[in-house]
Write a structure and sequence with these properties.
Layout: E1 5-7, E2 10-12, H1 15-35, H2 62-65, H3 75-92, H4 98-109, H5 117-131, E3 136-137, H6 140-143, E4 150-151, H7 157-166, H8 195-199, E5 205-206, E6 247-248, H9 251-260, H10 268-290, E7 292-294, H11 298-307, H12 318-334, E8 344-347, E9 354-361, E10 369-371, E11 402-404, E12 410-412, H13 413-421, E13 427-433, E14 443-452, H14 457-467, H15 469-472, E15 479-481, H16 484-506, H17 512-526, H18 529-541, H19 558-563
Antiparallel strand pairs: 1-2, 3-4, 5-6, 7-9, 8-9, 9-10, 11-12, 13-14, 14-15
Helix pairs in contact: 1-3, 3-5, 4-5, 9-10, 10-11, 10-12, 16-17, 16-18
C-alpha cells in the first residue's frame, strides 16, 4: 500500500485500506502456519471467531494476541507477528487508533530491505508487546484520548484518566530549571529501573538523547540521523544532564507524547513527577546493587526532599532503601568529589571532578558506604577483591584510551586530539648580551621548549585530586618549560620527606612522653596539602629554563632530583601542630 495523505511530511494510510490489508494478510498468515505445520500461538484468541459484543477491557494483551516471543527467528516469528497485528486491527475496528496508523507510517518512512511494509509494521507492534509483557487493553473511551490503546500494567486506569484530563489543558512551564514536583498519582513511583529493558535493543531508555522516546517509539529510535524526531517525540528538558543515573522514560510520555510536543501542556507535571521519582530510585538502586555513588545537583536534591519518601516503603526492602536515601543525602554534602583519584567511573568534562565513584556498601559505617581507596575527608576500607575499572581519563595515561590501528599498533587518542586542537609546543627565545663586549655587542640565542602545564587531562585530574580544583585551575592556561611540572612535584615530595625525617630525628633518644607529641606533629604535617602545594607552586615559578635533572624533556630523571640537596628553607615550610607555618592565608584548605 502507498500513502494516501501526508501529516507533517510523513505518509499515512487511511483506515479502510489498512483494515482490508489486515483481513487479507490474516488469511495468508493462517495458511502459512497450516502449510508449514507450525504450532499455534499460545493464548491466541482470534477476534473474528469471538461472539459479537465480547468485552476485552482489562484483558492482558498477551491473552488476546499471544506470546510475543513465541516461534523461531525468521519466517515463523514474522508470520506470528503479522497474525497478531491483524488481530489487533480487527479487534479495534473503525475508526482505528492513531497508534495503529503511526505504526504503518513508520514502516513507510523507514522501509526494511527484503520485507513488506505490513511485516515491518507488525514487527514494530511486536516490539511494544515485548517491552510491555504485562500490558492490558484499555476501554475505548479512555484509549481514544491517549497515544497508545494499552496500559503498561493493570491498575493504571485511574492514573491514566487523570493524565488524559491533564493533557487537555495548558500551563506555563520553565523547562530550564528543575521543577518542584507534586505528589505523584502514578502507582509505585519509586520503582527501580528495569535492567531487562536496558539490555533489550528495542527498549526506550533515557541516555544522552535529545528526545524523550516512549516505549511504542522503539522502532523509531533506529531511524536515520537526518530524520527530524521532533515530528513524533517531545524534547528532553534542558536541565537534564547525562550525569544522572540511567533511567527509563517516564511512563506518562508513552501515553501523551503528542500532547507533550507543546511545552505548555499541563501533562508535563506528570512527567516531572515520574522523572524525579525514577531518578531517586535509580540513585539508591545504583548504590545498593552496583556500588556506584553518583553526584547530584543542588536543585535535584531539593526536588528529592519535596517528593517525600513514604512510597519507598512499598518497594522491596523499602525501609532499608529509605534509610539509605537519607544517609546518601547527608554524605553528598561532605563527599570529597574533587579529591578522589581512584575508583572514579565518570568525571566532569570541565572541572575533572568525580561525578560517579565506585564505593563499598557498609551498613556499619556512618553513611552506609565507604570508599575503596584512601582519600582525605571520608571513611574508607580496603577491598582486596575489587578490580579497579579503568579511569575515565584513559588507561594510556595520556587522557584518552588507546586506539588500535588497522595494523595492530596502539596509539593514544589523546595524542591525536592534541595534535588537532592544541597548538604545537612553542619555542621561547632568550637573548643575552655577552659581558665585556664592544660597541657592537655580541648576542647569543638559546631556545627552550615550552609546553602546556598539564600533559593530559588524565594528569590534570590526578593533580586536582591531590591539591584541589581551585588551586589547579590557576595553571590551566599557562605554558611552562618542558619538564617543569614533573620536577616541581618531585622536589615538593622530596622536601616533604626530608622534613618528616628531620622531625623523626628530633625524637631520637627522648622519652615516650616527649616523643609521642613529636610523632603526632609529623603525622599532622604530612597531611597539610596546602604546604605541599606552596612548595610545588614556588618550584614551578622558579623553574629553570631547562628540565631539572634531565637532558631529555620527555623523560624524568628522578634519581637526579632526589640526589639534589634540599633548599635550606625546607624545614620552615613544615607547619606546626597548631598553625600553618610557611603558608599564606590563601593556601589554607578548610
Amino acid at each position: 500500500m502507498e500513502a494516501t495523505h501526508m501529516v507533517r511530511g510523513v505518509g499515512f494510510v487511511a483506515d479502510e485500506p489498512l483494515i482490508e490489508a489486515a483481513r487479507y494478510n490474516r488469511r495468508v498468515a493462517i495458511r502459512r502456519v497450516i502449510e508449514a505445520s507450525w504450532p499455534a500461538i499460545p493464548s491466541f484468541r482470534d477476534v473474528m471467531q469471538m461472539p459479537d459484543g465480547t468485552n476485552l477491557d482489562g484483558t492482558p494483551v498477551a491473552a488476546v494476541h499471544g506470546d510475543a516471543d513465541f516461534g523461531n527467528q525468521g519466517a515463523q516469528r514474522q508470520t506470528y507477528e503479522v497474525l497478531s497485528f491483524c488481530n489487533e486491527l480487527l479487534r479495534y475496528e473503525l475508526p482505528l487508533h492513531p497508534y495503529h496508523r503511526r505504526l504503518y507510517a513508520w514502516a513507510l518512512a523507514f522501509p526494511v530491505g527484503g520485507l513488506d511494509t505490513f511485516v515491518v509494521a507488525s514487527n514494530n507492534f511486536g516490539r511494544l508487546r515485548r517491552v510491555w509483557p504485562t500490558a492490558v487493553i484499555l476501554p475505548r473511551s479512555l484509549a481514544d484520548r491517549l497515544d497508545v490503546p494499552f496500559a503498561q500494567e493493570g491498575g493504571l486506569e485511574d492514573y491514566l484518566e487523570q493524565l488524559a484530563n491533564s493533557a487537555s489543558s495548558v500551563r506555563d512551564w520553565d523547562h530550564s530549571l528543575v521543577s518542584h514536583p507534586s505528589p505523584a498519582a502514578f502507582p509505585r513511583p519509586f520503582r527501580p529501573p528495569s535492567y531487562r529493558l536496558r539490555l533489550m535493543a528495542d527498549s526506550a531508555v533515557l541516555e544522552r538523547r535529545a528526545y524523550l522516546a516512549p516505549a511504542w517509539a522503539s522502532g523509531l529510535t533506529r531511524a536515520p540521523m537526518h530524520f527530524n524526531l521532533s515530528r513524533w517525540l517531545p524534547k528532553t528538558p534542558t536541565w537534564w544532564v547525562d550525569n544522572l543515573p540511567v533511567i527509563e522514560t517516564p511512563f506518562a510520555v508513552s501515553y501523551v507524547a503528542s500532547a507533550l510536543l507543546n511545552d505548555t501542556n499541563a501533562a508535563w507535571s506528570f512527567v516531572y513527577d515520574e522523572l524525579h521519582s525514577f531518578v531517586l530510585a535509580a540513585w539508591v538502586y545504583a548504590l545498593h546493587h552496583d556500588g556506584i555513588f553518583a553526584r547530584m545537583s543542588a536543585e535535584q536534591l531539593e526536588a528529592f526532599n519535596s517528593l517525600g519518601t513514604n512510597g519507598l516503603e512499598s518497594e522491596e526492602d523499602g525501609d532499608v532503601r529509605r534509610d539509605t536515601f537519607h544517609k546518601m543525602c547527608q554524605a553528598h554534602h561532605v563527599f570529597p568529589w574533587g579529591d578522589i583519584t581512584e575508583g572514579v567511573r565518570r568525571r566532569d568534562a570541565t572541572t575533572q571532578e568525580a561525578r560517579q565513584v565506585y564505593v563499598k556498601v557498609d551498613e556499619s559505617s556512618q553513611y552506609g558506604f565507604v570508599l575503596r581507596h584512601p582519600c582525605r575527608g571520608f571513611e574508607w576500607k580496603p577491598d582486596p577483591g575489587f578490580v579497579p575499572p579503568p579511569d575515565p581519563a584513559g588507561p594510556s595515561g595520556r587522557g584518552f584510551p588507546l586506539v588500535r590501528r588497522r595494523g595492530g599498533e596502539a596509539s593514544s587518542a589523546w595524542r591525536n586530539r592534541r595534535r588537532s586542537r592544541s597548538p604545537s609546543p612553542t619555542r621561547r627565545v632568550v637573548a643575552r648580551r655577552a659581558e665585556g663586549s664592544s660597541s657592537q655587542a655580541k648576542r647569543f640565542v638559546r631556545t627552550v621548549a615550552v609546553e602546556p602545564t598539564w600533559a593530559s587531562a588524565w594528569a590534570r585530574g590526578r593533580v586536582a585530586g591531590l591539591f584541589g580544583e581551585a588551586r589547579v585551575a590557576h595553571f590551566d592556561d599557562r605554558h611552562v618549560p618542558a619538564g617543569a611540572v614533573t620536577g616541581a612535584l618531585a622536589v615538593a615530595w622530596a622536601n616533604q620527606l626530608e622534613s618528616l625525617k628531620a622531625v623523626l630525628r628530633s625524637a631520637h633518644g627522648k622519652p615516650a612522653s616527649e616523643a609521642i607529641p613529636i610523632f603526632v606533629r609529623g603525622i599532622a604535617s604530612a597531611g597539610q596539602v596546602a604546604a605541599l602545594f606552596h612548595t610545588f607552586a614556588r618550584e614551578l615559578a622558579l623553574a629553570p629554563e631547562a628540565p631539572m635533572g634531565s637532558d631529555n624533556p620527555d623523560r624524568v630523571d628522578v634519581e637526579a632530583l632526589l640526589a639534589a640537596d634540599p633548599p635550606p628553607e625546607v624545614v620552615g615550610d613544615m607547619p606546626s601542630p597548631g598553625g600553618t607555618a610557611g603558608m599564606s592565608s590563601g593556601d589554607v584548605r578548610e
